[in-house]
Every structure is written in C-alpha cells, then in structure tokens.
Amino acid sequence: LTKLEAQTLGFLIAARFCESLNSVVNEFDFSVEGRDLLIDVAAAALGVERSLMTSIISTDSALHRTGLVCFPDANDCKFESYVHFLDCSKFCTLISSRVSLKHLFSSTLVESPAAELKLEDYAHIPAVERVLIAYVKKALTTSRRGVNILLYGMPGTGKTQLARLVAAQTGAKLYDVVPESDKRLQRWKTANAFLEHSSNTILAIDEA
C-alpha cells in the first residue's frame, strides 16, 4: 500500500471500531449517495483532495483488489454498511495493539502441513513426476506468472496430499487459503496479493 492508502485503511478501521469516532462519523446520514459521502468524510479526515480519495475508495483500488476492504453498495444510513473488512475480529484489535501480519492473516492464509505421501505412492500416475512436478519446478525457476493447476477427482483420492508433495519435491513453500465459505473469494484475493512478490511459493485452494 502507498502511504495514503495505509492512512486511509487506518482511518476506516478507527472509524469502524473506535466508539467515539464511530459515533461522530455516524452523525452523517449515509443513506443518500453513501459512497460519495464516505469519500468526502475520509478526504476531510486525512486532509487530502477528494480526487485522491476517490481513487483509493473504489473497486479498482489496492484496498479493494487485495480484499482487505470492500466498499459495497448499500441503502443504509450507517457508515459500517459501506465498509466491510476482511476479518472484523482481527482488524478491531489494531485499535489497541500492534498485530503481526501472521496473526492478521491467520484466518485467511495458513502454511500447509507436510505431505504424508511420498512420490512412490503416485507411481501409478507417471505424469506426476514427468509432467506435473517438472512443470511446477520450471514455473518457479522462471517466475512464470499465471500458473494454475486443477487437481480433480473423488474425495479421498489424494489431491491435497499431491499438492503438498509437489511443493516438497520442488522446494516451494505451500500456503492454504482457509477453507471457509464466508468471504472465501475475498480471502483468496488477499492471499494472492500478500504472496504476489514472494518467491518459491505455491497457493492452494482446497475444495475449490
């Protein structure tokens, strides 16, 4: 995030979870053109031009693309109806204490356990070693973008274990998107953005 994006995120968190500031913000009636009013309030609070805040509070912004904050259309008079955070239970703690990134994203992204199966367990599928592992290794070595692999099959056939095995065989770190139906797409977006500049990393979405 840019400095202003980080400041905006900080203001939105404070305006949502700090009771005194929330009561002030909700003196405004957001039921009429709530998104525009949200932009005006944030711009005034941070002392910046409205045009700058318009780009930050939009569906094309880094805050929205990463899934940290969503700015839904609503028909409500309350500020909080127009600002939805990735994880309210985690974000509210930022008001009173410093929170590590690992803790902040623990409901979104977790490091995958080690594989329980070995390469010989997939000897009946030669393409695992010849194609799949070779392809992933090449993709990681060349930092190729847009590499996605779908593992399809009946429950219990070893798809999750295969993903973990591929990570182990290629020396990559494997992360899992937490498998919750609530805000799962938002969590995937955040995980994707969080890991975008990390090297030798694979992101797994189980029960996709």
How would you describe the overall organization of this protein?
Helices cover 44% and strands 8% of the residues. It has ten helices and five strands, in the order αααααββααβααβαβ. The strands form two sheets. A three-stranded mixed β-sheet has the order 3-4-5, with helices on both faces. A two-stranded antiparallel sheet has the order 1-2. Helix 10 links the parallel strand 4 and strand 5.
| Estimated structural class | mainly alpha
What is the approximate shape?
Answer: elongated
Q: What order do the strands of the largest sheet run in, or round the barrel if closed? A: 3-4-5
Question: Which consecutive residue ranges, at least 5 long each, have pLDDT under 50?
Answer: none
Mean of residue pLDDT?
A: 87
Radius of gyration computed on alpha carbons: 21 Å
The helix/strand series, from N terminus to C terminus, equals HHHHHEEHHEHHEHE
Fraction of helical residues: 40-55%
Number of helices: 10
The portion of residues forming beta strands comes to: 5-15%
Largest β-sheet summary? 3 strands, mixed
Total beta strand runs: 5
| Distance between the first and last residues' Cα | 28 Å
List the defining traits of the structure above:
two-stranded antiparallel ribbon; mainly alpha; 208 residues; 44% helix; three-stranded mixed β-sheet; 10 helices
